[in-house]
Amino acid sequence: MRRAVVLGASMAGLLAARVLSDHADEVLIIERDGSDVDDGPRPGAPQGSQVHALLPAGQLQLERWYPGFTEAAIAAGAVVPPPDGVRFYVEGVLRTAPPVPPTGQATTLVSTRPFLEAMVRHRTMAIGKIRLVVGRAEGLIFDGDRVTGARYVPEGADEIVTESADLVVDAMGRSSRLGDWLEENGWPRPPMLRMPIKLNYATALFRRDERISDVWVAVSTASADEARGKVARIGGFHVVEGDKWIMLVSGYDDDRPTRDVEDFTRRARAHFPTPFGDIAERAEMIGEVITYHQADSRRRDFHKLDRLPAGLVAAGDAVASFNPVYGQGMTSAALHASCLSAYLRSGPSPDAPARAYFEQVRVVVDAAWQTSTFSDLSLPHVDGPYPPAYKLTKWISDVVFAASMTDAAVNRRLDAVMTMRAHPNTLMRPGTVLRALWLSAVRGVARSRRSEVSPAAG
Ligand SMILES: Cc1cc2nc3c(=O)[nH]c(=O)nc-3n(C[C@H](O)[C@H](O)[C@H](O)COP(=O)(O)OP(=O)(O)OC[C@H]3O[C@@H](n4cnc5c(N)ncnc54)[C@H](O)[C@@H]3O)c2cc1C
């Protein structure tokens, strides 16, 4: 390719540009937000002030596209938590320690989102043939059955500028207007599937103090139980660069954490295990509590389009954006970049629509969607859309999940899925299901023995 144009310079856009630099003489990124990426959260990616976890699969991808990334991130301040400093709580109970990755595999790398994005931005922009202009993308240029460029308004200007391209990448995030642009030019918009989740986040930063807690990373999940008046809540905190903790408390539907510090502290103490309350009450808060609401998980199914122009792809949240509590977004963006690489390496015709790319992306989206929406269907306020064979799959998943609480082998397999290193269908393999069923039967026998013994003992 002579030139590729990428719309959006967040995680998906930067990773796509990195991949395109192997295939095009020139890559131009158009980004509306001219903020300095080293200055923390920026308006163009407002979710940046919230807790962001990079899953190990995402880290492996970053290492692939930017060799030495992990080492450089650690040198710049990213944190690798010690295994004994990590706590996972389910329904308030400490869960079996997560498996320690074998040497040479991705460790968990923790940082704030702006730190990570800045690292990716600097590494991408260090590639000579990639250029970034600040301006708002306003539309595409079409010629017959293909996209031949993009239009944008440079920052501070009124006039629209056009840029020609052999390939345009939409990486404008979940609110991308690509569908409108396609429709305005006589093409169908990709069908969008939404699952309303009504998620409410509140995040705060604290100065780390080992006298208050020696925990580096904690994640606590509690599911809803309407009969007992319990609501679903997820909380988490990590040590991040600069020796700080970043802490999230969340709720669903009308359970909305506010920006009020007292509300944050009360929730941390009342809804989550002890270290949450200890940090929120006793550590020094840096800055303010920042809230975020996400109404839905959504996916745009480009692979279903019967007409699609050549010269156009989409990546990252512009294709699919999930409930963020599962931490899949940045890793999905990185996997989409790998799909783009595989597609371009296959030598596709420049005049044919990128169907093979969207078919690969579909595998990534299906897997992430399956994991996140499946769990979200258990929320009382979420009533679909249900996948086929939902009840049976849910029953099997519940058995596997229960087994993972005590069994290291099942825990390892579940962890591979939750960290996006394995496809969720791997949990449905007979070896895993039979092991989980056997463990469930053993637990059942032990329970009935206990109940036979306890009256006598009492
Ligand atoms: C509260 C919250 C918490 C999250 N936590 C995690 C987590 O723990 N782990 C994880 O992996 N993911 C998490 N995510 C998801 C993650 O933030 C996204 O998946 C990721 O940022 C996707 O990147 P993107 O590049 O596709 O889109 P975005 O980050 O949304 O970026 C879109 C970019 O396009 C630019 N843009 C938009 N319109 C235009 C235009 N017209 N012209 C030019 N530029 C434009 C924007 O300025 C922006 O830079 C979270 C999301 C939220 C909301």
Automatic annotation (TrEMBL):
It comes from the Bacteria. InterPro entries: FAD/NAD-bd_sf (IPR036188). This is FAD-dependent oxidoreductase. It comes from Sphaerisporangium album.
